[in-house]
Amino acid sequence: MLVSFVKFRTIPRFLNINKIIVRKYNVPRRALMYVPGDDPKKISKSLTLDVDCIALDCEDGVAVNKKREARETIRSFLDKGKPSKDRDYDFGVRINAFDTEYWQEDLESCLTAINLPDTILIPKVETADTIKQFSEEVKQRIKSDKKINVIIYIESARAFLNIVDICKTAEGLSKTSNIQPVSLVFGSDDFCANIGATRTESSIEILYARQKLVLVAKAFNLQAIDMVYIKYKDLEGLKKQCEEGMKMGYTGKQVIHPGQVPIVQEAFLPSASQIEWASGLLQSFEKHQKDGKGAFTYKGSMIDMPTMRQAENVIKLANLKKT
């Protein structure tokens, strides 16, 4: 029997076990859907969809002469507030890369809105200095302890050489600043262009990079979001690539068309064995809490709070599977 996720929402938001702090549950991001920030109709449409993560785009999805319009349109939607749905979802903004002239205006616009976005997505991160600079910019604009989720894009050879340092820096800053890293994204097309690779249907040319991103993401308890499937009308091909990515350990996929959302979100639901593991873990946690015990073992492993969050994630997805 599935354990109700609602039952475990009663766990205190900040519960100190072995000096590990439980943070607010991170929403699943099976489908991360880009919506051009300069198109209010498409943004309004996206808010009616059952999608885990909406990324209002200031970057690749917006022409250079439309950057300002996108910024202003996104700001107007943020001012109105995040529309409520039957379940939680991520409402974020993808800013322009730090090697452009646009990113500071993007940040200024969305971080001074009446309502902050849940998440900022930072493309083309190549060194830890970008994360440090981003953290300082956020600190200057948010005069509270409010946390902003951060999704980091790895899209070049240099980025992959520095990926561990990037994640270490983001993890460290999460303890002292307003940023909370939640996901790594594999930007496959920019990566291929950067290294001069020729794209193939099998994607063998990017296999190493694709697997490395998952490895590092999991080492830092981050979600791993897979590459875009550009043939948006080929749903069979999309499903196949989703299943391939999930077997590698990816937890979600970038989406460029609403028609891709159902396929992607179904593909990244947990298996029966994952549900059984998570259910048992959370039941064991509840028992140990009632007995006044902190740290505990489950099936031979010492359980910490990142593992607890993973179990909660599985159960929340399992409950979505039932609906």
Automatic annotation (TrEMBL):
InterPro entries: Aldolase/citrate-lyase_domain, Citramalyl-CoA_lyase, Citrate_lyase_beta/mcl1/mcl2, Pyrv/PenolPyrv_kinase-like_dom, Pyrv_kinase-like_dom_sf
E.C. number(s) listed in UniProt: 2.3.3.9, 3.1.2.30, 4.1.3.25
One Gene Ontology term, aspect cellular component: mitochondrion
GO molecular function: (S)-citramalyl-CoA lyase activity; hydrolase activity; malate synthase activity; metal ion binding
Primary location recorded for the protein, binned into one broad class: mitochondrion
Binding site for substrate: R94, E155
Assembly and interaction partners: Homotrimer.
Primary role: Mitochondrial citramalyl-CoA lyase indirectly involved in the vitamin B12 metabolism. Converts citramalyl-CoA into acetyl-CoA and pyruvate in the C5-dicarboxylate catabolism pathway. The C5-dicarboxylate catabolism pathway is required to detoxify itaconate, a vitamin B12-poisoning metabolite. Also acts as a malate synthase in vitro, converting glyoxylate and acetyl-CoA to malate. Also displays malyl-CoA thioesterase activity. Also acts as a beta-methylmalate synthase in vitro, by mediating conversion of glyoxylate and propionyl-CoA to beta-methylmalate.
Protein name: Citramalyl-CoA lyase, mitochondrial
Lineage summary: Eukaryota, Metazoa, Ecdysozoa, Arthropoda, Hexapoda
